[in-house]
C-alpha cells in the first residue's frame, strides 16, 4: 500500500542488549522538519510474496517519483567486460599483501603509481580518461581464516579489478597459489611475488613495479562497453551517524535504491547490529515467508552477539551528534533500505544472483571469537565490495572522509552544517532537506543521477582526493542456509558467463 507524505514516523523497536524473551517494545517517533516522506513498510502492510525479480508498487512513493523524471536508456552505464560475464565500472590493478609482514613492500609498490595533486590523472574527472589506478588491499593475519581467504578471492576477481599482484612473505598460512589460480581462471593477469624468494625488500619492490607497468599497459588498451542497469550492484553503509542521518541522507538513499531496483539493479544494505528492533518491519517486506523468518533470525543473532560482547553498535560520536537511543539509530539505518521487497540475504562474499534488495548479514555465526563484527566503516565497505558492489553510497552526519579501494564511494551528507564544513569531501548535501531547500525525492534523484554518472566513469570526491582505505580482519561464518537466498540458481545471472 503506498505511503502518504508525513511529518512523523512512528515504529516499535526492541531494546537492544536484551534477549528475545525478555525484550520490551519501545515506541520511537522521529519528527521531520521538512516536506519529507518517511514511511517504510510496517507489519500491517506486508509485501506480496513473489519469486525471481520483483516489481514493487512504488506508486506515489520514492523510486517511482524519481524514475518518472529519469531517462537512463539514452545514457547507458559503461563497464569493462570480464570473462564471467560481469562488467566493471573501474579497471584497477589490485596489489594484495597476504600477511602484515608483506604490507610495507606492497605499499611501496603501490606508492610508485600514486597520482599526486595537480597531475592530469589525479584531476581527470572521468576515470576512463586516466591511467589505470593501482589500489592496495590485503590481510594482516599469519594464521588461516576461511573468511579472509574468501574475501580476498572475491575482491581480487571483482569486476572493477583488471589485474592482481599478490605479495607474500613466504611463510604465512594464506593459500597464495589457490588465490592466484582463482584470478588466473577469471581471465585476469596475475602474479605472485614472494619476498623470501625474490631477494628481499628492494628486489621485490622493483619486480612488482615492472610487472604493474606491463599490467597497466594491457588494461589501458581496454575500452569500456555499454552496461545495462540490471548488471549493476550498489551497496550502502552509514558512518558517523547523527540525529539528522535518519531523516535526510538515509531515506534519500532509500529512494535512490527503489529507483535502481525498479530498473533491475541489485542493491545491498547491511549493519544488522544497527537494525535491532526493525526485524519485523523487514520480515513484512520479505518476498517469501521463509525469507522473513531468516531475516528475524539474522537480526536476533546480532542482538545475542552484542549482548554477549556487552557492547552495542552505538558510538560516543553518535551521542555527541544527537542520537539518543539504539532504537533511534536502528530506525535511521533501516531508512536506507527504501520500500522495495527484500528478495534475499547474503553473507560477505556472496554475489546477488538477480536484481532486487538484499540484506547483508555481517555478524559472525556462533559465539564471539574475534571481537566486534566490523571494527570500522571500511570493514563493512570491504564486505559489500566482496559481494560485487560496483560502488558504495555512504551516508554520514558527523562527517566521514574515507573512500575505498576497488569500488568508488559516494558521500551523502545528512547534516547541513557538516556539509558546509566538509564540502570538499561530500558529494551530496542531503541537509538541504532540513533547511527546506529540497525534498527527499529531489535528493534521492540527485543520488541516483550521481550513481549513473559514476557508472559512466565520473569520479566521486573521495576518488579525486585519493582515498583508497581498506581493512580486512579475522571473522567466522557458517555456510549460508537455503532459506536465505532467492529461488534462483547461484550460477545464474551475474555469476554466469
UniProtKB/TrEMBL annotation:
Record flagged with keyword Cell membrane: no
InterPro entries for this protein: GD_AH_C (IPR048332), GD_AH_second (IPR007392), UxaA_altronate/galactarate_dh (IPR052172)
Highest classification ranks of the organism: Bacteria, Pseudomonadati, Pseudomonadota, Betaproteobacteria, Burkholderiales
Molecular function in Gene Ontology: hydrolase activity; lyase activity
Highest taxon of the lineage: Bacteria
Pfam families (alphabetical): GD_AH_C, GD_AH_second
Segments forming domain D-galactarate/Altronate dehydratase second: 79-217
One of the GO BP terms on file: D-galacturonate catabolic process
Record's protein name: Hydrolase
All residue ranges annotated as the D-galactarate/Altronate dehydratase C-terminal domain in the record: 230-475
Calcium among keywords: no
